[in-house]
Structure formats: C-alpha cells, structure tokens
Amino acid sequence: MKNTAAERIFANPKFHHLVRTRNRYAIVMTLLVVIIYFGYILLVAFDKPFLAQKLGTGWVTSLGIPLGLGVIILTILITAFYVHMANTRFDAMAAELLQEAAE
C-alpha cells in the first residue's frame, strides 16, 4: 500500500522536530508577553506611587508612561521576532519536509 504525502510527512522525524521547535518558541514568546503585560498591570494595581513618580523635577510625565510604552514596544518586538522566525526558519523547515514528501 502506498503512503500518502501526509503520512510520509508525519512519519518524518524532521516534522516532529519542527512542531517541537515551533511550539517551544510560541510558548516562550507567549510567556514573555504575559509576564511583561501582567507585571505592568500588577504595578498599576499594587504600586501606584511607584508609577506616579515624576521622571524629574519639574517634569509632568510620570514613570508609568514610559513603562507603559515599553510594554507595548516589547510586545511588538517579541511578535516581530516570532514572525521573523516563522517566515525564515519554520517555513524553510516546512518546505524541506514538503520536498522530501514529494520525492
């Protein structure tokens, strides 16, 4: 009986390596975003005086503003890193798997 392409891909150890690697990256990136986001939210909830500190004497801006912007920028950077990995490394691994399955 002839194996289908899907069966050949699933039997290939490179497929399982791809899935493990992609899942590991996704979990790490998700945890980073959750820790950063909830860390900021916990600061807002439990340490308002810390976030209300002015950046300098005579300044109007408080410490919470740059920290909030930092949360947004870090989240965008983490997402961009994951997209870069997906578009380069994971897509290359998937293309190699498809080529091997087609042979």
From TrEMBL:
<dbReference type="Pfam" id="PF04341">
    <property type="entry name" value="DUF485"/>
</dbReference>
<dbReference type="InterPro" id="IPR052959">
    <property type="entry name" value="Inner_membrane_assoc"/>
</dbReference>
<feature type="transmembrane region" description="Helical">
    <location>
        <begin position="58"/>
        <end position="83"/>
    </location>
</feature>
<keyword id="KW-1133">Transmembrane helix</keyword>
<protein>
    <submittedName>
        <fullName>Membrane protein</fullName>
    </submittedName>
</protein>
<keyword id="KW-0812">Transmembrane</keyword>
<dbReference type="GO" id="GO:0005886">
    <property type="term" value="C:plasma membrane"/>
</dbReference>
<keyword id="KW-0472">Membrane</keyword>
<feature type="transmembrane region" description="Helical">
    <location>
        <begin position="25"/>
        <end position="46"/>
    </location>
</feature>
<dbReference type="InterPro" id="IPR007436">
    <property type="entry name" value="DUF485"/>
</dbReference>
